[in-house]
Known about the structure:
The complex is a heterotrimer of chains A (about 120), B (about 450) and C (about 525).
Chain A: E1 2-5, E2 10-15, E3 18-23, H1 25-31, E4 34-38, E5 45-46, E6 51-57, E7 61-65, E8 70-75, H2 78-81, H3 85-88, E9 97-101, H4 113-121
Antiparallel strand pairs in A: 1-2, 2-3, 3-9, 4-6, 5-8, 6-7, 8-9
Chain B: H1 18-28, H2 59-71, H3 94-100, H4 103-106, H5 118-135, E1 139-140, H6 147-162, E2 166-169, H7 175-188, E3 191-193, H8 205-211, E4 216-222, H9 233-242, E5 246-251, E6 270-274, E7 290-294, E8 307-311, E9 317-321, H10 328-331, H11 344-381, E10 387-388, E11 396-400, H12 405-414, E12 421-422, H13 423-426, E13 436-440, H14 447-461
Parallel strand pairs in B: 2-3, 2-4, 4-5, 5-6
Antiparallel strand pairs in B: 1-7, 6-7, 8-9, 10-11, 11-13, 12-13
Helix pairs in contact in B: 3-11, 5-11, 6-7, 11-14, 12-14
Chain C: H1 42-45, H2 82-93, H3 116-122, H4 125-128, H5 140-157, E1 161-163, H6 169-186, E2 193-197, H7 203-210, E3 214-218, H8 228-234, E4 239-245, H9 257-266, E5 270-274, E6 294-296, E7 317-319, E8 331-334, E9 340-343, H10 363-399, E10 417-419, H11 430-439, E11 446-447, E12 457-459, H12 467-486, H13 489-492, H14 505-510
Parallel strand pairs in C: 2-3, 2-4, 4-5, 5-6
Antiparallel strand pairs in C: 1-7, 6-7, 8-9, 10-12, 11-12
Helix pairs in contact in C: 3-10, 5-10, 6-7, 10-12, 11-12
Amino acid sequence: MSRYFTKDHEWIDVDGDEGTVGITDFAQGQLGDITFVELPAEGQQVKAGEAVSVVDSVKAASDAYSPVSGAVTGVNGALEAAPELVNSSAESAGWLFKLALSDPGELAALMDRAAYDAYVAGL
Amino acid sequence: MMPTWRGCKPMRYLPLTPADRTAMLGVIGAGAIDDLFVDVPAEARLSGPIHGLAAHASEMAVERHMAQLSGQNVSASAAPFFLGAGAYRHHIPASVDHLIQRGEFLTSYTPYQPEIAQGTLQVLFEFQTQVAQLLGTDIANASMYDGSTACWEAIAMAGRVTRRSRAVLCRGLHPHYVSTVQTMAKFTGDTIDYRAPRLEAAPDTAGVLAAIDGETSCVVVQYPDIFGRIPDLAAIADAAHAAGALLIAVVTEPVALGLIEAPGSLGADIVVGEGQSLGVGLQFGGPYLGLFGAAEKFVRQMPGRLCGETVDADGRRGFVLTLSTREQHIRRENATSNICTNSGLCALAFSIHMTLLGGEGLARLARVNHARANAAAARLAQIPGVSLLGDTWFNEFTVLLPVDAALAVSRMAERGVLGGVPLGRLYPGAPGLANGLLVTATETVTDEDIEALVVALAGAIA
Amino acid sequence: MNALNPSGWRPGMGNGGGDGTTRPASPTASGDRGLALEEPLIFELGQPGTCGVDFDGEDAAPGPVLARFLRAAPPALPGLSEPETVRHYTRLSRQNYGIDLGPFPLGSCTMKHNPRLNEKVARLPGFADLHPLQPTETVQGALGVIAQLAHWLVTLTGMHAVAMTPKAGAHGELCGVLCIKAALAARGDPRAVLLVPESAHGTNPATAAFAGFSVESIPANSDGRVDFAALNARLGPDIAGVMITNPNTCGLFERDMKAISGAVHAVGGYVYCDGANFNAIVGKVRPGDLGIDAMHINLHKTFSTPHGGGGPGSGPVVLSEALAPFAPLPYVAKAADGTLRLVEEDGEAGQHFGRMAAFHGQMGMFTRALAYILSHGADGLARVAEDAVLGANYVLRSLEDVLDAPFAASGPCMHEALFSDLGLAEGFSTIDVAKGLIDEGFHPMTVYFPLVVHGAMLVEPTETESKAGLDRFIGSLRSLAARARAGDELLKSAPHFAPRRRLDETQAARRPVLVWRGDAPAS
């Protein structure tokens, strides 16, 4: 399994043709206390770069984009009762949704951890 | 014409003295006031005073001018009065107007700094609770502009919830509300299914049920309706829900809910209303107060301000505006509505009046209203040529006259009686409705008023 | 992710945070402290069956016409007697700050003095106790108020006509944008893009989207004004128009306004002006002379109708000759015999886009605004703008050495002065300055708006502030700026002297409690 990052601060873990998507720890730190996460519908077809989820903090609503194209196969139901999971474990238990990749070739355009860390350091 | 005072006398609302202005210009480093307007291109600056507007005027002079305009109107308190149709004359306890004029309420802003706005915020929390109880919904917002705009907002919200865009309006929805909805839908592309009302004893429930289909986002039913009749909400709720649509109930006379079942308890998913009846005067149509209640599961799709309970840094209970990520100042083009303000001071007036009444007081007020309407209906029905339209009503009912009701109302006004709203005023393009007269009798109507109405109407149609 | 906290706003506290120097909630048995009075909810005070209203008239059981519809039980709401009610709301009022208590320099909101004459005339029975559907012959004076106010609004703005019915500023914006949409539709032109500067108030894009337009953002240049070159480059046959705030939200007059209007008109678009800041130019500049097609006027800003804790407002929209035919219904017209009538239906040739709300607009605000205009007169209104601008520049120049003023070099400001959080100590932000102002006895300025400035502080003193009041405010803000630059930790937990300390907005949003359900108070 390998993890990729976007310039918009999403991460995706890829295992075969299934991916798990969340926002990065850096992103949650910028947003502050997260109060609500609007998740996509299961079965929804999404395109790479499409806004599919909204992460609310008290005074901001930020779109989260899908890193790659595919069909949503599951969402993190735990966030409904505990959106703070995105703050405490953005890159593990605070994941947003899973999807079946339709074009794994899109992964080539994403960053690895080292590249993302360098990108963030340069912001 | 108003007297004018030319020259340099001080204007009472402007505290800066000539010496202050000179000193302030010195700190700024400007020679003259107009140096501060250098960014305005010279050709856009006015060279003299506004054309035709006199110089500043004293309190006494302005009050005289306004009183003269006021005196050209026949106020509701000056005549036997029977108008309704979405705006109702009720007695407002004297303490209501006194309290809303306290400067800490009157001259405060939207409570963005909650540490010094707990007065407004606690009032809004109490208001939301009162409205939810009254409408029978889980939750309510901090108010909208008025009932008609709240009605459109509810339809837009139903579209977000159901992801459909076809709204079915009952025939008995207030025609101004219908027009407001049609205006908005024209621009958003929503489909509005509406048919003009008919002079029938009961609302057209069968027609509403037949109009519901798999594309319907919501069914909008006024309760009681524009003719004063009471529709069968529960039956419509069942049909709407079976088709995956929401039921929106519209209440233009909230006092009725002291007596008849709350729409939320009959299956309405969203209940909106005009709150003017409680605490807010007639004011020739505004400002009024939009009530908005809904099932809690739809909270993220609601428009308007919401106040919520929380704690402060010392753990003490306090209130804040919350869930503001739905709103325009954060979501911008993705907001649930472009609304900024609520109708704060009107919500305060409503809440104070509701507090004075309590639930049981409201029920009693509603019984008195209904009894007054029953008395008026019974007397009017005795006039030869006059008949009652509906078989149900609260404090408002429609009578059918042998002549154009607008003519009858004009004649009654000449005799010093404000005798109701002619349906022709509400439906100008519908000659079939022209002989209908909408009559409202609230607790403000006396037996003498009813006798005056009977005499005036009998004379007007003779 | 997009929009990673563009304004720089941070929650003022963590979960249950504070400064670690928590005082006991109250040292008294009552919970009150002198004149600092706590007040329970009415649901905790009232009793079922208590009522503060006596009724005349029979209290009969409802007749058969309602039998099927009766409510199972009255609303479960307690009542209070009149003395309890008066006390409840009076005690609550004391937890509020208002203009009547001191300076309220909330930028772009125009918190000026609310003259009490206006309250008095609005309550004259001929205005307050008048039904909107009375026969027009019985409401000639009320229609006269609408007609007179309409005349002065048109005259003051140099425009062609005015739509009086919009209920608030945002509703007025919608009205103006719908006029543009209707005008385009009338000429069969499908253009659907509205350009909105990035410094715009959030209602602008929200309104444009609501009306079915797509929104494109126009950048600001380095001196805080619309980048005319960028705007010009984007103009074309797909542009329905622009929405510009002038004076803008940075407190600056858009010098290029006339040229912008000309360029937009040249490509067939319309110019909407957000009139929220008309207070700065009333009596001095007429928007009609700047080529504007539509502008809403917040009567609760420029014309002093009370803000009332968040409304009601009123937002008449002045219109150019090009847009006037599309104005909403109803409107007041003068008949040949001099009587006034209400036009509630479209005539055969009518192009009006329809009705925006029931009845005829915010009459209660019209009476107040008319009294305000007549009270000030031509000389007083010009002085309103002059003193508002003078006060803001006085604040700007009295503070620019201690607070970063990003556009101070752009020339004089108009009616509001803009500062940023640049130069505050590490970990200190605008919110700490704002909350410090609360302890100083002032209402804070607008914070974190406009978004184009990091940690924005927008100060609008208004013309009804005395020099002594301004000096006290400036003195407090200088002190707070010094403390925030020095990193005074006490500021981070301010306010200390308000009815409440910082409130936990995170908890409120994560687990919303929107109505009282009889639970024990959250703690």
